[in-house]
Design a protein that fits this description.
The structure is a single chain. By secondary structure, this protein is an alpha/beta fold. It has a single domain (2-359), classed as Purple Acid Phosphatase, chain A, domain 2 (4-Layer Sandwich), CATH 3.60.21. It is built from 10 helices and 14 strands. It has helices spanning 2-22, 51-58, 64-71, 84-100, 117-125, 130-151, 178-186, 194-201, 239-259, 293-305; strands at residues 29-34, 105-108, 156-159, 210-213, 220-224, 263-267, 273-274, 288-289, 310-315, 322-328, 331-337, 350-356, 363-370, 380-384. The chain has a 6-stranded mixed β-sheet. Strand 12 and strand 13 form a beta hairpin. Helix 6 (130-151) packs parallel to helix 7 (178-186). The chain is globular, with a radius of gyration of 20 Å. The chain starts with a helix and ends with a strand.
Length: 385
Amino acid sequence: MRFFLQFLRVFFLLFALNTSVSASDSPPRLFMTIADIHFDPFVNCGWKTCPLIEKLKSASAQDWPAILQVNDKKMSGYGQDSDYLLLRFALKAAAEKAAAQHVQFVLVLGDFLGHDYRKKYKKYTGDTSRADYQLFVRKTFEFINAELAKAFPSTDVYMVPGNNDSYQNNYVSDPNGAFYHDMNALWPILIKNNLARSAMRNQFSTAGYYALTLPDQSNLRLIVLNSVLFSYKARGRNIDQAAQRELNWLDQELQAAKINHQKVILALHIPPEIDIYAGSRLKLFTFMKLWKETYIQRFQAEITRFAPQVAGILAGHLHSNWFHILTLNNQDIPITGTPSISPIFGNAPGFKIYSYSPNTLAIDNVETYYYPLSEMKRWELSYDF
């Protein structure tokens, strides 16, 4: 009953927002979210040997598509990460929807590498060199970057780091290290707008977080967090100091947005906590804790203090489609998760398209698309809120 009442509350809230937007002279603007690609070139390897990986090691990233296309005969299924066929198929569908609906920008919410990437690399190559593995990972990101660039040739794409995205192991971060330096040379290429691209490049190397004013929407700011630093699983040198610096930076960004009369969209990979049983007494993420408690409390304080500035919080990581509404200081803030492209946990691959009013900056609708792997038909509209 509590969940049903909460659903009705959310429904009527969004209905009211949608009504106010439709009465406006300005048409809604749209953006897309993609999450948890988890590209895995090892999917079609045998038990012990994998000539494919040796070919990829010796080839340049630009040659990877031709090599993978010959090797991959069957698209990834449930219980597997994304092979090349699924990656290409998903991006093709996303690109078609983005073009048809005139999506203004795309957010890719982290976890680009497949699970156990380093372990599989060692297994199939016998190579324990850190330098060689780092080179292979960089080629992987160059390849994924090129695939995203082909899918969205004229649309700004903003990247978010996930816990699998590292030159080391899962959840390991190296603030000011080689990974962030290399991605700062690579990921901004996907941003076509010069000012937005420069803003990312001036900030990202620190530890994977950045903020920028969205092109053609001067009253809306995008804040991309590296929430891996806040995870209770986070590891790395000076990781707690880096997390505190990021939260201090977030406070400054939210203060600046308030002074400049801007709304903000917060994009991150790992959400702090999830409350799937939110009822009349709404609290910030009260069910599944994914961050260290001290960072949850600090983040809650920031969002509470600057609730009027927050248009929405968008996350990945959980491989599922979820949402709820935060009510803080009489402000309703939608928080949503995007389903993964990877079907490793039994979910159908999916992505989302949001619309918002350029006048009120309220997110008023979301569409979720998915592909039922077992039916092998076409991408379907799961729901239009």
